[in-house]
Amino acid sequence: MEYSRIEKILASLFVAFLLLASINVLRELENVPQRPDYEYYQEKYGIRPLLENQSRLMELERQLFEVYQKAESNLTEAERVYLFKREEYRVALESGNATEELKREYLKAKEEYEKSYFQYLGAKSAYEQTHEKLEELNSKIQELMQKANEEYTKAYNAYKLKVLALKLLFVLPVFVVSLLLLRRYKNIYTSSLIAYSSLLLIYLLLSAIWDTIHLIGLSLFGALATLLALYYVRKEYFKPERVYKRRIAQNKCYSCGFPVKDDYLHCPNCGAKLKEKCEHCGALKPIHLQFCPYCGQ
């Protein structure tokens, strides 16, 4: 049955609008099962308070590290002054030029050095203790996060399976009904329905594959679909009957494709028989034609 261009355009629009509506329905189905909440599993394992404590410890560690660096810098300077004053006082003692002022400066430098050294030890100890606590807390958080992630992943996979089941319950009946209608009524309307249901099913499969293994799965699926499409095209388009009819219509030998004329009985290239007698009218007709072009039988 022939259809006008406007009918074909309207049929295409019909398929497009149905697809848009159905894809929207598929997306809405994702809200039917209860989606697992990751924060629930964080609260279940008490991760949130630990994260808050981690934040405070990180800030305290940063501050103590600054104090530790400053104490280390002060110690370095105090040690430099102390060593200089000690050497100066020692030289003065050996030369007999030692004075009370040099002695006081030396003792003061020594006192500042010892003070800076104890401050450095205190700052270093405070920083190292805080850093050790933070590492222990990080390890504990990481362990609990792993447990929460594992439990959430299981719940999310179960949720995805429920969503996929709901989507299949929507798509498969539509596809089956469209297929049954196409087998019974072969027209543009049933063809549009089967095109719509097939595209919807393909969309669902691609979405499921993408959600599961993303790009690798999609690539494998695309490669497999391409191979199947090539096999189908090769099987349908290059059937011997199709090749024979196409070559006869192009005035070529059905066997080797060599150009021939209408009055040739055999191919000059391969010798294949090109004409045969019609059983009904006796006229010579091209071989491999289903109906005689002279009597129609």
- The sequence of SSEs as H and E is HHHHHHEE
Helix content: over 70%
* Poorly predicted tracts of residues: none
Helical stretch tally: 6
Instruction: Write down the CATH class of the domain at 32-184.
Output: Mainly Alpha
| Counted beta strands | 2
Rounded to the nearest angstrom, the radius of gyration is 44 Å
Overall outline: elongated
Strand order of the largest sheet: 1-2
Largest sheet: 2 strands, antiparallel
| Through-space gap between termini | 22 Å
> What oligomerization state is this entry in?
single chain
Supply the CATH architecture of the domain at 32-184.
Orthogonal Bundle
| Alpha-beta content class | mainly alpha
Strand content: under 5%
Describe the structure using short key phrases:
single chain, 297 residues, mainly alpha, Helix Hairpins, two-stranded antiparallel ribbon, 6 helices, 76% helix
Describe the structure.
- The protein is elongated.
- It starts with a helix and ends in an 11-residue tail after the last strand.
- The protein has a domain at 32-184: Orthogonal Bundle (Helix Hairpins).
- The longest helix has 85 residues, at 100-184.
- The protein contains six helices and two strands.
- Strand 1 and strand 2 form a beta hairpin.
- 76% of the residues lie in helices and 2% in strands.
- It is an all-alpha fold and 297 residues long.
- The chain has a two-stranded antiparallel sheet.
Short description:
The protein has 297 residues and is mainly α. The protein is 76% helix and 2% strand. It has a domain at 32-184: Orthogonal Bundle (Helix Hairpins).
